[in-house]
Design a protein that fits this description.
Blueprint (H helix, E strand, L loop, with lengths): L4 E7 L5 H10 L3 E4 H7 L3 E5 L4 E4 L1 H13 L6 E5 L11 E8 L2 H10 L4 H12 L2 H10 L4 E5 L3 H16 L3
Parallel strand pairs: 1-5, 1-6, 2-5, 6-7
Antiparallel strand pairs: 3-4
Bound molecules: adenosine-5'-diphosphate and magnesium ion.
The site of adenosine-5'-diphosphate (ADP) has 14 residues, from helix 1.
């Protein structure tokens, strides 16, 4: 039994992780939403009332991921999407795709989500500083991380799919 072949989809909220993952699922890829795993595993903690955000107990989520991956083999790629994917044990991670999106569209997305001013600012600043990208590079090394400008959902999904297939087939 080979070790799991994991790919990750990271990015600031609103960059299109879930939408791109849904397209990839329609291609046949199995992808878990890391926030769902945190909730189902009882890893969501206190509530940040100012930012209107649930807080994830990272150690709890790390344990859940480790346990899940121990039951999987490398017979097909398995994906995780969400902005906490850096918690995935690096030993299994074959590639991490970090989505980026232009500021204007991100702000419009945050407004439609009714984020307050502070939350919009925090997220836009995280996007400008490329926080997700830098955290992923830190976790997995630069050669395992690609930053993808997600200007078109379908073309982003195609790029990711083709990279995974290349890596999985060992070319
Ligand atoms: N490149 C894009 N072009 C058009 N719409 C997009 C693009 N990226 C994201 N969206 C839209 O923005 C919204 C938020 O995307 P979502 O996939 O939920 O982001 P995330 O999971 O990263 O928070 C969705 O309605 C999605 O369809
Ligand atoms: Mg999402």
């Amino acid at each position: 039994m080979g070790k799991p072949f994991v790919f990750l989809i990271n990015g600031t909220p609103g960059t299109g992780k879930t939408s791109v993952s849904n397209i990839l699922r329609s291609f046949g890829f199995q992808i878990f939403d890391i926030n769902d795993l945190a909730k189902q595993g009882g890893c969501t903690e206190t509530y940040d009332s100012e930012l209107n955000t649930e807080i994830v107990d990272e150690e709890c989520l790390e344990n859940i991921l480790e346990e899940m991956l121990q039951t999987m083999d490398g017979s097909k790629p398995v994906g995780f999407e969400g902005h906490l994917v850096d918690l995935c044990p690096p030993v299994y991670v074959m590639h991490c795709f970090v989505l980026a999106r232009n500021r204007k569209d991100l702000i419009a997305e945050y407004k439609s989500r009714n984020y307050n001013g502070r939350k919009i600012e925090d997220n836009i600043s995280a996007e400008i500083m490329q926080e997700c990208y830098l955290a992923s590079v830190d976790a997995f090394g630069p050669e395992k991380v690609s930053l993808i400008e997600n200007s078109d959902l379908a073309s982003t999904a195609r790029k990711i799919s083709s990279k995974i297939q290349t890596l999985f087939s060992g070319e």
